[in-house]
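Troubleshooting: if your tokenizer reports a length mismatch, compare your output against this known-good record of 299 residues.
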Amino acid sequence: MSSKTLAFALIAAATAAPAFAADLTYRKATLAPAPVVSACVDEEGIPTDAFGFTTGSDVASVGSFGPSLTYNGAFGTRTGSSNGHGLTLQGSYGLFPCFEVGPYVLGSFSNASAGGISADERAFGAGVEMKYRLLGRDMHGLGLTLVLDPSFNRADPDGAGRFTTYNTGLRIFADKALIPGKLYAALNLSQDLTWTGPSPYQRSSTFTVGGSLAWQVLDGLYLSGEVRHMRAHNDLGFGNESGYATFAGPGVFWQATKQLALSAAYNIQVAGKAKDQPGDLDLTNFSQHLVKVKLGYSF
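Known-good structure output:
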């Protein structure tokens, strides 16, 4: 190789190297950062209240806070009349990743009458709902949240002494996007362990399994249909069953603004049986009609 050829090659290499380095630096700078995959946050969120009485798996992000006010109504019994009304005020806060804490206070009023005798009962109480998201839809195909919900309720019935009820709810909330942006499914399992005083406390429990489908008909507007099966027991386990009931009904969820949401659901008992009671429904342990209306706000 001649000296002129060698010099030309060296000059070409020297000029090409900076251009290649600059091009590499430019391409590195324009590459989008890799998305953060987490069980706590999914690319597509599903409103937890879009499924009626059934609940979705999403939890509040760290530092976010949202109050809610929920009305629950229960109507219908086998003999006479019965109706109950309750309000729950709750504040939910994202305490740390995947964990939401939701303290609440509640109050209720019920009226029942049979054979010309009526009885009113007032109650108030408080509790705290703690939710930990174990699986995320983006990572695992479905969302899965574990819930611990301890509470107490102080009842004051007419013509009887006051007493306190303690309840511990153990729950699993799961959901999945069947058609992203359109159709979603949710499944809930719940076991409520109840101690009713005064001492010696009566022990009871209620097991619930519920499934729901929610369809997003418009942006922020969901219609749902659900089926729930509930079984009542006169102990803390699954023995000594006192009755069971199956409920079904529709629900609606509306994200009115970015912060404000309104949801409502209705369930009717379609099948059931109370132990040692006639009829095809269990109207001893459960009501015939259930109503839920919730107003939520997020900051």
